[in-house]
């Protein structure tokens, strides 16, 4: 039996799905623009703006649902987490635009070594796709993989920064440090989203360190 709250929850889920798709698109465009020297700042900026608009729509819709329908516990966890996850999507959009701007600010960076970034960016892309999929399906079975990828990015971040201090190419070192920082923040938000999905499903705020069996 359809409840009065269900159409609004369906609209909320659709909005979140659209934000997830836009986040994936924006971050992939931004990372590829840095690695392959493409100018996509305007395109990524427009995507980021679209995510922000949907973020405000999520905020309005969740407020409306809370006022009108007095949701039960399961619905309330979904609504509360939707607010947090939609904020994560808005940050994805902003970080994507920041990465796209690095190429604009530093100009030609074809001389910079980007080998490290290729593997890191693939893991970040995987984390975002997984986070979007987990939310769409409320599936937390791959949480352990998410943690492994976040650990990889954190380790890389801690290892690379001291190496960049001693780099002889200041432009490449600064560009790399910025992109590295943005990737680290994106990975953190993806992990946070995974925790939020775990909260929706189980009522627990954190995924166990050993992941789910």
Any overview of this molecule?
The chain is built from six helices and no strands. With 213 residues, the protein is mainly alpha-helical. Helix content is 81%, strand content 0%. The mean pLDDT is 88. The chain has helices at 6-36, 41-69, 73-106, 115-137, 143-165, 170-202.
Give the terminus-to-terminus CA distance.
33 Å
Radius of gyration: 19 Å
Class by helix and strand content?
mainly alpha
DSSP, total strands: 0
Low-confidence stretches: none
**How many individual helices?**
6
Give the fraction of residues assigned to helices: over 70%
In terms of quaternary structure, the protein is single chain
Task: Provide a compact summary of the structure.
The protein has 6 helices and no strands.
Key phrases:
single chain, 213 residues, mainly alpha
Topology:
Elements: H1 6-36, H2 41-69, H3 73-106, H4 115-137, H5 143-165, H6 170-202
Helix pairs in contact: 1-2, 1-3, 1-4, 2-3, 3-6, 4-5, 4-6, 5-6
């Amino acid at each position: 039996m359809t409840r009065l709250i269900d159409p609004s929850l369906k609209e909320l889920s659709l909005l979140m799905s659209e934000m997830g798709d836009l986040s994936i698109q924006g971050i992939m465009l931004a990372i590829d623009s840095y690695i392959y020297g493409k100018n996509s700042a305007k395109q990524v900026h427009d995507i980021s703006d679209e995510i922000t608009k949907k973020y405000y729509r999520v905020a309005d819709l969740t407020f409306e649902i809370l006022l009108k329908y007095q949701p039960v516990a399961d619905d309330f966890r979904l609504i509360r987490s939707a607010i947090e996850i939609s904020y994560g999507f808005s940050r994805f959009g902003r970080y994507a635009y920041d990465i796209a701007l690095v190429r604009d600010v530093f100009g030609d960076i074809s001389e910079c070594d980007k080998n490290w970034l290729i593997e890191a960016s693939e893991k970040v892309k995987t984390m975002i796709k997984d986070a979007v999929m987990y939310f769409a399906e409320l599936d937390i079975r791959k949480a352990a993989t998410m943690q492994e990828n976040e650990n990889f990015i954190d380790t890389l971040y801690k290892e690379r920064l001291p190496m960049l201090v001693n780099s002889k190419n200041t432009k490449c070192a600064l560009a790399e440090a910025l992109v590295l920082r943005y990737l680290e923040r994106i990975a953190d938000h993806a992990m946070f989203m995974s925790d939020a999905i775990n909260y929706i499903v189980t009522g627990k705020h954190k995924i166990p360190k050993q992941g789910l069996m």
